[in-house]
Amino acid sequence: MARPSEFDRDEVLLRAMEVFWCHGYEATGMPALVEAMGIGRQSLYNAFESKRGLFLEALKVYQSERAKSLQKVLGSAPSPLAGIETLLTSIATSTGVARTRGCLSVNTATEIGVSDDEVADILRRGAQQSKADLAAAVEAAKAQGELPAALDAQAAAEFVLTVMRGLRVSAKAGAAVSETRNVARMALAALRHAPSDS
């Protein structure tokens, strides 16, 4: 096993993140983490202090990676609404491991909730970033005439984020692709046809 000075902290955090993502916090044991990270148990404790300390850092890494991914999808789409559609559709039509393991943030929220202040704060900050990015996309879509001008961008962003979470939970719970795809389509229709006094 590598000594603390011999391992790449970012790399081992990504490996730990994958383990927590697949199994959850409580079900992940130290042996599985040590094996996946390729470092000794003492090295792990020296670097991260505890399983919880490791999890908090891994969750922060996940939030950062997800924020970059969301921004990339929205920024590279041919139009703002197309970016939102891509986000929803990609979750709805995911398959294999991407579908069954869900989202680490959502998994953590359902497992731990607000019982741990530090975890709750990390999740809250991630949600705030996602809402801000989605709200900016909604505003851009309104400016281009893709969405109703009177649509509340913040409320719409919260709606899209909630649908994204719901799709991930449904997919993880075994919903068929056809079912989640229909939900995504209805969500997009709801955005396009929001009442003018929304």
UniProtKB/TrEMBL annotation:
The keyword Transcription applies. Signal peptide: none annotated. Keywords: DNA-binding, Transcription, Transcription regulation. The keyword DNA damage does not apply. Residues 29-48 bind DNA. PROSITE patterns: HTH_TETR_2 (PS50977). InterPro entries: Homeodomain-like_sf, HTH_TetR, Tet_transcr_reg_TetR-rel_C_sf, TetR_C. Residues 6-66 form the HTH tetR-type domain. PANTHER family: TRANSCRIPTIONAL REGULATORY PROTEIN (PTHR47506). This is AcrR family transcriptional regulator. It comes from Roseateles saccharophilus. The lineage of its organism: Bacteria, Pseudomonadati, Pseudomonadota, Betaproteobacteria, Burkholderiales.
